[in-house]
Amino acid sequence: MTDLDNLFASPFSKVADFAFDENVARVFPDMIKRSVPGYPTIIESIGLIANQYARPNSIIYDLGCSLGAATQSMRRHVSSEGCRIIAIDNAQAMVERCREYLVAQDAMIEEAIPAEVITGDIVDYPLQACSVVVLNFTLQFIKPGERLALLRAIRQALLPGGVLILSEKLNFAEPSTQNSLEELHYAFKRANGYSELEIAQKRSAIENVMLPDTLEQHQQRLQQAGFEHSHIWFQCLNFCSMIART
């Protein structure tokens, strides 16, 4: 049973930077469902997209896997023989719970493709040849100066015809667009039961940790990394998911 996210419900004298610790891991499913518009659709569709591009006997990466929602979706949908998933996250609390969730999934799904969960830093992790890579709301937590190198490493590891699924919160260069979508996002959170205090304190906690880019920045960086084509397949408010192909 998922715990309710009330981490920011009480006032703090000083709001600490957001961290993927045990407290966050405990409430993360509730937090992300109530904070990210369209998240269930993104997760389910990641499995469908991965199934379309996964090559037999290849590796699939879930980089910055958190509790493994994308990994679980791919295990439900990928049907290519011999595939295996390597899920990586640098937060030990998230990794431990992710492993627990995958064990529970094993008990419910017969012959799910193998999945290994590793504690590690995706910035310097040596990627092997692979057919699908998922960065599901992960790149925005990587230092901006390290993002291009990570994407280049992913592009070099992808097999011909391989795909990167990249989900991100977006910034917008045009101020009125940014303000409009930001206010709609806050309205989404209010509709999901978050108070003004919770919204404000969460914003303070995450503003120095999560640094979103514009769509144009993403597209330019993907091109610089060597991807031949990229496009949005889903957007809800200021959240989107893209496909980048080799």
UniProtKB/TrEMBL annotation:
Stretches assigned to the Methyltransferase domain: 60-162
Keyword Transferase on entry: yes
Catalysed reactions listed for this entry: prephenate + S-adenosyl-L-methionine = carboxy-S-adenosyl-L-methionine + 3-phenylpyruvate + H2O
CDD domains: AdoMet_MTases (cd02440)
The entry's keywords: S-adenosyl-L-methionine, Transferase
Residue numbers binding S-adenosyl-L-methionine: 39, 64-66, 89-90, 121-122, 136, 203
Pfam family, one: Methyltransf_25
UniProt EC number: 2.1.3.-
Role, per record: Catalyzes the conversion of S-adenosyl-L-methionine (SAM) to carboxy-S-adenosyl-L-methionine (Cx-SAM).
Assembly mode: Homodimer.
Database matches in NCBIfam families: carboxy-S-adenosyl-L-methionine synthase CmoA, PRK15451.1
Family per similarity comment: Belongs to the class I-like SAM-binding methyltransferase superfamily. Cx-SAM synthase family.
Matching PANTHER family: CARBOXY-S-ADENOSYL-L-METHIONINE SYNTHASE, TRANS-ACONITATE 2-METHYLTRANSFERASE-RELATED
Protein name in the entry: Carboxy-S-adenosyl-L-methionine synthase
Protein's gene: cmoA
